[in-house]
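Helix-turn-helix domain-containing protein
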Amino acid sequence: MKSEVDVLKTQVDELLKVVQELQQQNSEEGWYDGADLKQLFSFSDSTLARYRKENRIPFTKLGGRILYPKSYFTKSLMAKMKNKHLL
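Predicted structure tokens:
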């Protein structure tokens, strides 16, 4: 029978694997468009425009479309994660 410490170590190992997968996904650059951000974060068009104007979020224009790097939002979410010191 596993002790509580062994169970906790197993859970920590599983969490570390998840974080490593997220970091690996982060290294594979991808892009969101405005519709993605509005759905994921409940942003409005005016909020996105204001954030771009204030340089609060990185973006690029490509063929008339405005795109946002996924890595920025992944890093931002990881920074706001509670108990990140345990990782």
